[in-house]
Amino acid sequence: MTRSSKKGYYVNEKLLKKVMKVRELPLEERAKHPIKTWSRDSTIIPEMIGMVFEVHNGKQFVKVKIIEDMVGHRLGEFAPTRKFIRHGGRAAELMMKKQQAKS
Fold this sequence. Notes:
- The chain is α+β, with helices and mostly antiparallel strands.
- The protein has one domain: CATH 3.30.860.10.
- The protein has three helices and three strands; from the N terminus they run H-H-E-E-E-H.
- It has helices spanning about 15-25, 25-30, 90-100; strands spanning about 35, 50-55, 60-65.
- The protein has a three-stranded mixed beta sheet, with helices on one face.
- A hairpin with a 4-residue loop joins strand 2 (about 50-55) and strand 3 (about 60-65).
């Protein structure tokens, strides 16, 4: 999911307006006002650091707190769309029995 460096990063305009509005708040208040978004393809920019987003994964909203290491990635990378349960088979059954015995 790369984008040409000469084109720059992509951030949804509507999302950028919400970010600038929340950015005016003090740092302590930013976490209390999460930004809901369906724009999974928007790039995380430095202005978003310290904010909390609720990114839609197709079924529900997943809370994502933005930290410095996330800059340059996409919002959708931190809200998985598929849920892994586990592989079946005899080995999985034995593991389940061991876990139940420990409980």
